[in-house]
Design goal:
mainly alpha, 55% helix
Length: 384
Amino acid sequence: MALRTTQNSNYLDTRTNKENTERAGKQHVTKNTFGTRAALGDIHNKVSNLRIKDAAKKPVNKGLTKHQATTSLKNIAEKENSRAKAEVPIGKISPVKAYSSYVLPSNVVDIDREDYENPQLVSEYVNDIYDYMRFLENKYAVEADYLGASQEINGRMRSILIDWLIQVHLRFHLLQETLYLSVAIIDRFLSKERVPKKKLQLVGVTAMLIASKYEEMYAPEIGDFEYITDNAYTKAEIRRMECHILRTLDFNLGKPLCLHFLRRNSKAAVVDATRHSMAKYFMELTIIEYNMVHHAPSKIAAAALCLSMKVLGGDANWTDTMSFYSAYPESEIKPVMRQIAACVQKADTGKHTAVYNKYSSSKFGKISKYPELKGPVISKVADS
């Protein structure tokens, strides 16, 4: 397996040019080249004026005098103006119920009570969305030890592939969601198809190509993935594998990711950036482990955050509020926490150190080098 991770300069140049073009375009987005008003610039409530003009163009009813017709137009204008004044201004919308199908228990804090004025946070039905995401993660789950003894590929080969893809992902400066989706595609595909060992790396780069198209604004080109494999596979082979993977998965790429659940859990726990970053480090360690592929993303996210809170001290209690929003009591996530703690202990000394090296950089706050990760809490959880 070729492990070349030197970045293609053409990809970086292309990406930079696109970003510059977009930046330049944004600077002139409100300037109108034709001398008329800027798009959406002067839009406000002018319905009454428009209707008056439309009504003026229509022929006057022969049964009405000129005075009666003018009075009729004035009545239209008055009605429209009074209707506009009766509308509730933006930002003064009456509070709505925070959940469409939930009644919060008395011991659970409503973490969405301040968000009803922000339509992007969809506080009215955010819990229904997360219920649907838990349905999807079960729908697209893979079984434990899905490779089996009859496959050419085993768990060790999968770990080598994922460790290399983490380095590729870092070189291409892709989103975190792209990495998690790439791994999800690989596991779902390998659980359905028997892939020869010589095609495993091809599956890996193709999965990342698909995930990039799904998540990124500017996805790497197919030639970048050909280059990163040291030309072990051609563009045509990558395209054929892309079609094969998408058909096998029935074009369903919407499996929820750990990151989606972690953001919700961190909001419920009111944790700081350090605890949130450490939980992300824990989650990324799990994607290399073949013996953890069957765990639901929501459970991994809950276990990672709970362990992070315990390691860094402070208020480390897994409260009723956190149990409600994560959908897991602490007793249910303890086995996963034990596995994560074992991953942390060998992160810098094992065969696969890409995640440790990644999070040891200043860009990620050198989170993997925190002395607490060598402390008694990790050892206690790993041995429990």
